[in-house]
Batch of 2 targets.
Target 1
Amino acid sequence: MRNLVELHDISKRFGAKQVLDHLTMAVPEGSIYGFVGKNGAGKTTTMRLILGLERMDAGTIMFNDAPAGDPHPESFPTIGYLPDVPTFYDDMTPREYLTLAGQLAGMRGAALADRCQTVLKLVGLPSDRRRIRGFSRGMKQRLGIAQALLTEPQLLICDEPTSALDPSGRNDFLALLASLRHDMTIIFSTHILSDVERVADHVGILNGGQLQAEGTLAELRQRYARPRIAVQMADALAAGQAATALGGPATAAGARVDVPYAGEAAAAMKMVMQALAAADLIPVALAQQSTTLDDIFMEVVKWPTCGSSSIRNASLLGAATGFSCLASFSCSSAWKVP
Ligand SMILES: Nc1ncnc2c1ncn2[C@@H]1O[C@H](COP(=O)(O)OP(=O)(O)OP(=O)(O)O)[C@@H](O)[C@H]1O
């Protein structure tokens, strides 16, 4: 799979704040790329740089292997953008607004009218005389995505598209993104990691101005696998006693005890059950826990930022389907199963 967008060694500073520091990132063509990072990590800044709405201090952006600014822009993808808070001319109807947006993008006549109808239907908005003024946040978000899709872009960039939506609106939006898979490449930033787990096939975690981990979800899970057993006890008192009996890295929270382990799951389960039985403690439930993107995120962002030279030396690009991780995870505080 080749990369539609590549960022090489991008640096960006606002005043005294170094927001991006030799950021290198690759977005495979046809992927849904979940772009995550703490508040202020620089996700919007990165997306605005890709859009050409912001100037970088150093580095290169490549589209289809051609540098942005190339005098032959035919290799550049068309880009649709859904900002975090889309704004509209409220006195217009959605159709009037989309017609204006299409005309500004050079679309005309019946083709434009047809496309307006298609995108309104796609996002589930009415094509009647209702004004945008009366729209809910969710309806405005839908109109924003309709506008972003109007020109049938090859690259769609969405900045925190689901943050203002209720669960049902979020559900619809994610289903829409998933339905666009393979028709276009999508970058979307979010703090809702379960949304990323649901639709993204690639994930990049931005921290300290650099991409600290990048890969498919499966690759990240494998790299950051933090196997553990959850022991459910009857109450918090029993959980505290169980944690003491299990010792080592076991931690209690409420009625649950978390037991990280290294080695075979079955052997770890057996050791946990034996230790509990020896202490005359009966668990309500025992279950193996899989690594979530939340676990991975917390693991990645807790590590100090690597030196920029090590980032530069680690080639994230050229292996779009490969996995790269710049922060290491050591499972030192875990039960070691022989
Ligand atoms: N035009 C600007 N002028 C000055 N500082 C800016 C500007 N744009 C962004 N910043 C600063 O750059 C940093 C990164 O901001 P950015 O919006 O890119 O982060 P983000 O990861 O998108 O954050 P969030 O998740 O909170 O939306 C922040 O400290 C922000 O205040």
Note: The radius of gyration is 24 Å.
Target 2
Amino acid sequence: MDKLNIGISIGDINGIGLEVILKTFCDERLLNLCTPVLFGSSKVVSYHKNIINGELEFQSIRPGDTPEPGKFNVVNCWMDNVNITLGKATELSGQYAGISLEQAVKSLQNGTVDALVTAPINKEAMKLAQFPFPGHTEYLARELGRGQEHLMLMVNEGLRIGLATNHLPLKEVAHAIDKNLIKRKLEVFHEALRIDFGIERPTIAVLGLNPHASDGGVLGDEEEQFIRPAIVELKKKGVLAMGPFPADGFFGSGQHTKFDGILAMYHDQGLVPFKALSFGNGVNFTAGLTHVRTSPDHGTAYDLAGRNEADPSSFRSALYLALDVARSRKQYIELHANALGQRQKPADVEGEDEVLTED
Ligand SMILES: NC(=O)c1ccc[n+]([C@@H]2O[C@H](COP(=O)([O-])OP(=O)(O)OC[C@H]3O[C@@H](n4cnc5c(N)ncnc54)[C@H](O)[C@@H]3O)[C@@H](O)[C@H]2O)c1
Ligand SMILES: N[C@H](C(=O)O)[C@H](O)COP(=O)(O)O
């Protein structure tokens, strides 16, 4: 497979995003694996390069230019001198994060880049800049959705935790859970495990919403009303979904190691165990989009901004996962195109197709 162009959105310029990006590509071996294309500005890159004292050379290009293979390409999405206020959420940092993300998405859509790795944005800064989405996931679901459901999926090797609801205040979660939502999330989860992760018959554990998965109806009824019926319907369609499992003991007892995927009902139910088990190596992947998008499992870490102490491992894992998933998708498409080809009647066979009748 040819070397892929990996688009990278700059994230919040006041946080640690650029630090982990630049630290990652200071290892020049990565330039043999892919061609990075960062959407931002060479001035901002130079500022952060001074913080890490890095050796990395970069190639400045304009929007629309072809990225140069083997180089760290920086697309100048703006030419202004930007006021960088390390460690602070500002309207400006939100605005530039938004510009970079929009430009990166355009380049995915027009094929200049093959996959996207997003550096962390700060939700407060994005709100100051009037960005009308709580996170990347919701924005990308609108821009790159396929008219079906998407899934926020946290990945660290064999541990894959998807969320039924994303960035939703806790008091709204129970109202959002219904049978159709769980079914749609399980379908997109199943498809991603097969196509993006290459698991032929994936198993998915579904967590309950209530304490002890409602303890037989003593502590709520969403499990019996919505979650179990969704699991039963999906099983009939061949999806190996199981549950609902009480969430509290699920990870402590090691049950999470027995499934290819775990569907949690809300953000912290899934992300607390995920980050406790994976912080530093975990990756946030958005399943169900037209294009591959990953991100590190950490945020803007304002407390570390400018200190040259941020660990780039999670960003590097996000890059590797983007490459792996893009290859897995391509392989799946090729394999199935071949299978279709093989099933087609060879041109030199004469006669009508046999008509099969139902008994
Ligand atoms: N992908 C994303 O865009 C993304 C992901 C998570 C959080 N966020 C956003 O980031 C902002 C800050 O979030 P937060 O404070 O809850 O989480 P955070 O991940 O930024 O920080 C949590 C803790 O982890 C430490 N940490 C984070 N990344 C690190 C790294 N690479 N190396 C060493 N230590 C690291 C920080 O110093 C802090 O102590 C919020 O606005 C949040 O919504 C964005
Ligand atoms: N829920 C994510 C996390 O805690 O890692 C984070 O908020 C980023 O989400 P987006 O990828 O939607 O921005």
Note: The longest helix spans residues 313-343.
